[in-house]
Amino acid sequence: MGLSKSWSDFGLSGPKNLNLDEILKIEFPFLYKSLVEYANPAYIEVGSFYYGDDETSISDFFPLTQSYEYGSFLWCALDNSIIPKGILPFARYAGDFLICFDYRETKTSPKIILLDSFMSEIYPISNNFKVFWSFYMSD
């Protein structure tokens, strides 16, 4: 699907804007917002991406809600001492590594990283969500 399409073109209607970007004082990538608006949470069954010499895929996206419950997007973003400040997990892969937005350098155009929170290792994936998604869906 090209960026000129909207999920609503397929008869899907998403929830109202949750304004989480305003709560967190960041700007979510447009493509990410479009994805979760109509598939929240999203369970992606195809695609893969590389980190270093290894390959993985997305297991699931975290639900984008205003809940602070364990495992929610806001819990990961605000109430978690394991995840470095400025890194916001939006998905995970089957091995429990976290796929994250990296807002440490900018609040408007995050890089995408893979975080092994147990080993405190960060693997760069892409410079933005659009590039990450194109890697992921090209497989």
TrEMBL record:
Knr4/Smi1-like domain span: 22-132
Pfam families: SMI1_KNR4
Domain of life per record: Bacteria
Designated name of the protein: Knr4/Smi1-like domain-containing protein
Entry-linked InterPro entries: Knr4/Smi1-like_dom (IPR018958), Knr4/Smi1-like_sf (IPR037883)
